[in-house]
């Protein structure tokens, strides 16, 4: 579905919820998490990873969001390029421009040009040699453009690189602190949000619905008649008395949905009652919509393996391997379960992943 935006009015239901991740809490013009896209500007989607770090993708580069200040008359952020949080020599040597119609860099910061892939036969000031990447220089000499490639980073105006030898450790520490930007909320249009049709849509979609034995359901799930209230891939089937959906052609049942904790517990229909006799198919989860909870891991099951009883019940390379005994398993084959998703083949057979 498509709606241009949503205001902070009480009538818009869904959009009263804040994006929350660790110590970060945000409302309009941001969206992400339990705030659907219509609740914010399309370019301001916030993400929360498994370690409660908030990030924002701007012009194809990821930025960590250290702080959001929405309590004053202006909306400001402290950002740091994710690729510049580690070793500088391992970063993406790439310039990006913040959309000027949305962001304004604080006046206490400036652009610093970094020259790289420089001609090694020439002399450069404020230089450092990156292993495998050659000479880099932070000296602001426009002549270097003819003998090097370059990109820019944001640093405080008080930062000045050393003239002879670049102190890379100091530069890395400055970049890890990030920089401040202001979001131009006054220039983010929201005229259509006050229309009666938009308010009616949010009022309708903000009403929880029941499917089978499960009530209190909301986005991203939907049933016929509520197509515009959910994610296209999360249509529910209530015909068997349960709330069920298909993910990659595998049927899942909703066991629990808590919109306060934002936790939804799913179970593969094939494995609700027994690990044996299920349909051995791997599932590609849509983690951009339903990311795994921090305490959830993938478990790999190997089915139809050659008989190898001497190797069951052991620990190898950080993985626990146990035999999965099924009454109808052929004597010439065995099944195993492994306590971590493996990146190499431990036994011959077809591997599947399930939660």
From TrEMBL:
Keywords: Kinase, Membrane, Receptor, Signal, Transferase, Transmembrane, Transmembrane helix. One of its GO terms (molecular function) is kinase activity. Pfam families: GUB_WAK_bind. Signal peptide: none annotated. GO terms for cellular component: membrane. It is found in: Membrane. InterPro entries: WAK_GUB (IPR025287). The keyword Chaperone does not apply. It is a single-pass membrane protein. Residues 15-77, 205-267 form the Wall-associated receptor kinase galacturonan-binding domain. This is Putative receptor-like protein kinase. It comes from Noccaea caerulescens.
